[in-house]
Structure prediction request, 301 residues.
Amino acid sequence: MKPIFFALVLTAPLLAEENPNLAGSGSDLPSGKGLAAAYAGDKDISSNKDVIFADDFEKGAIGEGWPEIANPNNEVLSFTPPGEKGLGERCLQVEAHLGKDTGGGLTRWFEPSDTVFLRFYTRFDPTCDYTHHFVGLRGNKGLTGNDKWSGFGKAGIKPEGDDRFSTRIEPWGNNAEWTPPGRWNFYSYWHEMKAGGDGKYWGNQFEVPAAPVIPRGKWICVEMMLKHNTPGQPDGEQAFWIDGVLQGHWKGINWRKTANLKANALNLESYVTDRWTKNPVNRVWFDNVVVAKSYVGPTAP
Prediction:
C-alpha cells in the first residue's frame, strides 16, 4: 500500500489518518481566471512573459517541439478534432492497446523557474478504463547529456535528494473502488517519501478525500503547481486545480538537497498496464498545454 497524504496547508505533510482537514484549507493560492484569460482560445499565449512553453497542437507534425516521442508502431499518437469550441481545430489523441503497447505520449524539457505551473486540457473516452500513470513533472540534474535523464526510471527506489524527484497529477481508482478513471491525486517521488507496505518506495499519493469521480466524455482543465524548496529545507509545495477551482494544496515538502536539481521536464502521457486496465483500447485526448511561472487558469472563450 502506498502512503497517502491528505490535501491541506501544513508546515509538513501528514498522513491522512493524522489530520482530517479538507483540501486547500487556508491556502493563499489563486483560483478562477489566470493569465490565460487575456488570450482567447490560448492564441498567442506564448507571448506572455511568464509562459515558458505552450502547445495547442494546431500546427506541425506529431511531436514537433517535443524532443522525446513515445508512439509505438506509429499507432498510439494522432491528431483529432477536439469537438468543443475554444480548443481549436485539433487535439492530441493517445490510444493505448492493451497487450500490444502501454500507450504513449510526449516529453519536453524546459528552463525551470522557482515555481512551475503546468496547465492542460484532457478528455477521457466514455469507455476509457483506469490508467496506470498520467501527466507530470520530473526533477533532473540539468538539461543536457545524462543529466536531463536523471529523473527518469528507478520505480520503487527512493531518490537520494540530489539525483531526482517527480510528481504526477493522476486519476486513481482506489483499487477499482471508484468508477474509471477514478479521482485526481498526486503521485510523487522525493528523498523524504515513505516506504510502501512491501518495503519499496513507490510514489506517495496526495489525495483529496472530497474530490468527485472524474467524468468521462468531457473536457477538463487540469492545472498543477510545484514550488521548489530551499535545498534541504521543508518549504516546497504542490497544488492542483480542476476547471479553475483549487482542489488541494500541500506545503512543507523537502523536494531536494541541492539547487542543481530542478523540475525541468514535462511528461504528457497516458500509460496503461493490465494491472488496472482491462479494456483492450483506451483513448485519452490532450489539448492547450501551457508551462508557466505563474497561475494559468482556464482558457478564455
User: Anything to note?
Assistant: Residues 4-292 form a domain with the Jelly Rolls fold (CATH 2.60.120.200). The chain has a mean pLDDT of 92.
